[in-house]
Amino acid sequence: MQGDVLQTLVAWAINLLLYPGLLLGLMLAAVGEYAWGALRPLLVPRLQRLQARPHDLLQPLYTLRKLARRQSAFSWQPYEQRAQDRSSSDLLALASVIGPLLALALIPLPGSPLARIASVGNLLLVLVLLAVQPLTSAYLRLRDGSAQSLPGEQALGRLLTGLMPTLAAVAALSEAAGVRSLQIASLSTAPETAAQFLVRLLAGAALLVSLPWWVGESPHESATSYVGRLLQRAALALLWSVLVLPAAGELGWAIFVSLGGALLAYVTFRAISERWVPARRAKDAASLLWATGLPVAGVALLVAIWSGV
To answer: Which pTM was predicted?
Structure first.
């Protein structure tokens, strides 16, 4: 009995800190940011390419060090009020790290130590944990109320905008797999028919354009909130990879496919966030998502239901 408890604790520690937790999440984010920095100059007008220089591989580390050294701006609020606001902001920023970190640990990547000894990867629980980071960012924006920051209601609307296509795509994957379970591993079985392949393709496209809306940005970036944002993108990319790409049989190949797909999803998320959404007003960007991602997810769900009849 004690041996089983110790084995579970060790597996949890490895999942949280190493694979697929903190270390893998930060490494994926660093490589993803570097890949996006190399690709970004190709997506901007030629006259602006000199200003869009590729990022260094250690750029997230430099940014983290800069944010850690930055001191808070002067405020006219009383000292007690500022101390209370800063304490609550630090707690919310910490929550924005813990949420995606726990989601990372629960994603059943190939070779995950925890997945070998326990049934992990409940999709509903993972989605709830992934909602923590954008919700805390939205609350901070609501409380901040500065003219330069995005209104909190709009930040909360981003999460709700991406929620419907995500749920429809997940429902399509579940229907195509023929399971009524919310375990992620049960949704990653290889497609056996053309209809199942089509559903996975359509659901993957819908998730690619809807999951970037699950990333929130704090009104005043800190080192903790920056780490939370990196882990959030990494967790969303790994979730997309596990849900959409079929599980391979051989362990080494399965790990390569999962991480390669996650890197592709990470770069795509960055491209959508920086090149698609900012080029439009928030209302227009949301309308475009509802006009593309939601219908694609709906078609995937219809095909899954039709093929299962």
So the answer is: 0.87
